Predict the 3D structure of the following.
Amino acid sequence: MEIVEDRHGRGSILITSQLPVPTWHEVIGEPTLGDAILDRIVHNAYRLELDGPSMRKLKAVETSEPTTTNGADDKPKGAKK
């Protein structure tokens, strides 16, 4: 709350979260405090919700696949010796 109060009306705040906005009150725990924080954040806010496949999962699959080598010295194809 202190951070939001300090920035409110003076500068931008960028917040990222994996939690859906409707669950924020529950996570904050205190209804009055949650209302105060969310009122200040939502006023004049631009909200972007990203939807799509998880890039972490895609990257994990890519890094777990074995690499192809050209044989003798186990360097990837095209790598300099």
About this structure: The two ends are 57 Å apart (CA to CA). The chain has a mean pLDDT of 77. Residues 2-64 form one domain. The CA atoms of residues 14 and 46 lie 10 Å apart.
